[in-house]
Amino acid sequence: MKTIRLSEQNADFFDRVYEVVRLIPPGRVTSYGAIASYLGAKRSSRMVGWAMNAAHQHRDVPAHRVVNRVGLLTGKMHFADPEAMEQRLAEEGIEVKEDQVVDFKTVFWDPAIELGF
DNA sequence: GTCTTGACGTTTA
DNA sequence: CTAAACGCCAAGA
User: pTM (2 decimals)?
Assistant: First the structure.
């Protein structure tokens, strides 16, 4: 059936993103690319970012735990209060300096590994 | 209908 | 090493 709209498929993609983001444990962060890769869309990391933008409709989606590949809080400006993001991360034990996650490599949470690939 | 922008990441020059 | 282009797909103008 070709009548399937891309919107529906992409909605499913978004839903998977939210599911993974919800599974991110406290004190840990992940990257858009890691999520995209886990979903099989390694080069569609932008869609993950777009999904996060739509994630504001959802409650249990800790978008503050998602940063770019270098651990930079690129999306902090999209929160209600940009300060809330790093503050929230600080509460979870994640140190943020200059909008960048300290020891990003240590706190990095890869779904492909933590979830068992 | 086309063109530009975007919470990114990889590859190539 | 740094800088730029490409890919990816969707939404807004």
Answer: 0.89
